[in-house]
């Protein structure tokens, strides 16, 4: 069975829970009250998105060759 790879961005929300964004799938965004629920909701959202792409004979993108990294930039203050 072929596996597809997708990067997920989890953003904590001020009121609680996490918004999940799937960068390779534009508009594929979901939410979960916990990290575990957010990941489960992301899997469900990705599967629905892929089913729609397949139904419309659209190409299936993947993040297999990409990755997410982060950097810290010093904050500058203005006088």
UniProtKB/TrEMBL annotation:
Residues 9-65 form the HicB-like antitoxin of toxin-antitoxin system domain. It comes from the Bacteria. Pfam families: HicB_lk_antitox. InterPro entries: HicB-like, TA_system_antitoxin, TTHA1013/TTHA0281-like. SUPFAM superfamilies: TTHA1013/TTHA0281-like. This is Antitoxin HicB. It comes from Candidatus Doudnabacteria bacterium RIFCSPLOWO2_01_FULL_44_21.
């Amino acid at each position: 069975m072929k596996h597809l790879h997708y990067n997920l961005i989890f953003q904590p929300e001020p009121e609680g829970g996490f918004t999940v964004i799937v960068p390779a799938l534009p508009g594929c965004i979901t939410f979960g009250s916990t990290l575990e629920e957010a990941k489960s909701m992301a899997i469900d959202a990705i599967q629905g998105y892929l089913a729609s792409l397949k139904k419309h004979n659209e190409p299936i993108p993947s993040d297999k060759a990409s990755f997410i990294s982060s950097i810290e930039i010093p904050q500058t203050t203005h006088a």
